[in-house]
Amino acid sequence: MTGVKTAADAIVVRLPAILVDLFPGSRRSVEMRASSVREMVDELERLWPGMRDRICDSTPAIRRHINVFIDGNKASLETPVPPGADVFVLTAISGG
Fold this sequence. Notes:
Layout: E1 11-14, H1 17-20, E2 29-32, H2 37-47, H3 51-55, E3 66-70, E4 73-75, E5 86-91
Parallel strand pairs: 1-5
Antiparallel strand pairs: 1-2, 3-4, 3-5
């Protein structure tokens, strides 16, 4: 069955509470299909307009204070996302 997507193709995107709190109806864990971080961000934007601006800057790149990890490895917008991957979007913690 070439070209048919299955549940196994889905990735799981885990969002930080601080980001979810800004978008009513959003969730901490979202299943979706995306083959790159850029496609994942596009899908988050489709689901919750304005989320791209919270994750990416205008260059576009992932904002300095945001990190994206795919199965534990730091990623950029161009990073491929394999089917079944666990993707974490994390905010940097700072303080003194």
